[in-house]
Amino acid sequence: MTQPTPVRGEHLQAALSLAAAGVPVLPLRAGKVPFGNCPGCTGNRCGGRPNMKTPGPCTCPAPCHGWAAATTDPHVLNFPEWAGAWQRAAAVAYHPGGAGVTVVDLDNPGAIAWARKHLTATRTVATTRGEHWIYRGVMPSANAVRPGVDVKSSMSYARWLGPGTGTTAPLPDAVRGLLVREAAPARPAAVTVPVRATSGGVCPHRSPKYLERGIAMAEQRITAATAGIHATVFAAFLAVLSTHGRCGCLTDAHATRLFAAAGAKGESPRHCADAWANAVHRLGIVL
Asked: For 90-94, 201-205, 218-222, which range has the lowest pLDDT when averaged over its residues?
């Protein structure tokens, strides 16, 4: 018996329409997350970045690398390697930065009220819990720039929920300033903890090389994480502080290295500061 020809799904049709309009698109699976790496790209074997911050040299034809897989090429969207993804897709996403826009994701009524008071009116798209405010212009992306507010632009993706209403305004300084204001508390002003009276200010843990190895291992642990980034960052901070948090050997430079490693995995300055503070509190360290 002849098998019926599969009908293209509505998600693929929407993606092709967006691509024709110059909007780079990719499929999302359930949970609003991109499709994971294929076997050939697992563990960075393809040369791409496992944290999906940059696409790397990988030329895999599958929708593998998160936002970096977004494309406007209809031939790529119709690749056989994409067919299974479109069949299982729960939504269509796009790369705002690639489309020349910035999405301010307002996740609750309080965030929307704040935006109406402080941001320039622009095109808005309703979401399940709030609104997307879309501006013309590109900037770095960041999560939790203030309560209920994320910024999605370069190296990020957003769900396509329709064209929205209103006129797209130029990206205002008030939105760019969200990242500037949040950069200040990237880490505690002073992370060095009081020296125990018995230590004399010298780390009692073998040698300075021991501290360096501990910091390097924590950086590596964070960098290698492919899931559960929040938990991994907290565990790494906790491990460093539990060993060196009371002897006075940790410096501001050490904390900066750890925060930078977490930031490279997509953690916002606020999340880094919170994870550090929570680790300090868990261990009962008095700063």
From this structure: 201-205
Query: For 129-142, how does the pLDDT look when each residue is reduced to its tens digit (9 = 90+)?
Result: 999 999 999 988 88
Which conformational region is residue 132 in: left (phi greater than 0), alpha (psi within -120 to 50 degrees), or beta? Answer: beta
- Is pLDDT above 50 for 287? no
pTM of the model: 0.62
